[in-house]
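Fold these two proteins, one after the other.
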Amino acid sequence: MRSYDQYCSVAKALDVVGDRWTLLVVRELLLQGGSRYTDLLNGMPGISTNLLGDRLKQLEAKGLVRREQAPPPVATTLYHLTDVGRELEPVVRELVRFGARYMADPTSDDEQFRGHWLALPVSELLDDTDPDGPPAVIETRTGDRPVFIELAGGQVRTTLTAPREADLVLAGAAQLVLGVLTGQLELPLARELGLETEGSTAPLKRLRYDGPRATGIDTAITKEIPA
């Protein structure tokens, strides 16, 4: 890793996490917790196995990642963020907020998606407007795995395991699911474009989007996703 050779805290931080893929390693460990090497590799489509190994070694050397030899029946190496590594969570969340405005229009036909990536924008950018309302669960089925959104006590949290049977299921392309959750895409249009729903849509009315609006999201999604 090349250094900027600047006596500046921003430059010092970038010396540690500024290389390509490094913050995405942090993203995966924030989302998945203790992760196997194969979990990380699957969560970052496009990275080579050698490059992932190099990034993990660099993060270990800087004290951001630690490895653990898990006992049977797991019996494999698990990677975790250290306390120092977890200090990057607010940075990643601010990047989620900043990048949300660009989510309407993919930059290429080759862009890939993993279901668990939805957890960060949902937990960071959505609020529950009915703190006195009954607990509700929305299940999203997009990408390779479902994400469960829990609304309770005015809080929105996400989990990768089902807390109970969902009140509403949203299934379809990630753009459609995210557009409906954030209120930037009307549900009837999303259904016309292929979104499938099961259950009551009442929980959607409780969600408030607290992030930058993706300019022209209706037009962009209609263009990108064939009806």
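Now the second one:
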Amino acid sequence: MNTTQLGKTGPAVSIVGLGAMGMSDMYGPSDRAESLATLAAAVEAGVTLIDTGDFYGLGHNEMLIGEALKTLPRDKLVLSVKTGALRDPAGTFLGHDTRPAALKNFLAYSLKRLGVDYIDVYRPARLDPDVPIEDTIGAIGEMVQAGWVRHIGLSEVGPETIRRAAAVHPISDLQIEYSLISRGIEDNILPTVRALGIGVTAYGVLSRGLISGHYSREKANASSDFRSRSPRFQGENLDHNLAIAETIGRLAAEKGVTAAQLAIAWVVSRGTDIVPLIGARRRDRLAEALGALEVTLTPEDIAALDTAVPKDAAAGSRYPEAMMAHLDSEKG
């Protein structure tokens, strides 16, 4: 497994990371034993970056990773934790709280659930409209000074917020959605982070399974998870997007790889400063995804993908309208 550095100030990490959210939340029930086996298999394969959030499964995801860490080499792993999202007992999202006192409280619980002394990369999950980003980053900076956090990251924020945050403290990376059919960061956000020496950890590289080659109208009809409420998975939008997925699958077959591998390889090809997060919940899906690292895309392959899947090809927004309103990254 090759490694890269998260930005000019961040830690060295494997060129792909494991996003653990689906093991606890958003995609229906998961199997604890298989989740733990998948975490172990990822580390054995050389994955060093594990991404979670303190609100994933209302703390379940951190406790799951904490259990896995009892038999994994903590000193060789980079734990990335998002924070600040508020949920009620039913799991409904209520907003965000990134006040300094709240962040220190959230961090204390994360350290306890994970069973660790420090978190490698700590980041607000979204911009809190009621708290200046300078106050948020300043508070995490104090936690860096105290030794509880090693690096500061950002998530789903736009160019102005990125620049303001970086003026307060070095930022290792921006976590944001990026895939063949979610390329909005290329206009303004990607140039901004590159100018500032900030890396990117890309989630949603398979667009929540939509372009993985494993999703279908039948699965959509039977689904009651997060995707059933996502505009890209509804009605005519889904028909349009599944047609795009079929096109990706055809190009993948011509190259002798799977659709998921082609889609992940495309993100890897965008630059060493971009680290895809693989959201595998099972070992077989993990093995398939890691196979993307053996795929070399030629300039002709890239051109064919750009022609077949234009930048704004997807139908529907990537989140429901209410959630889109919380994305500073979508505000220009």
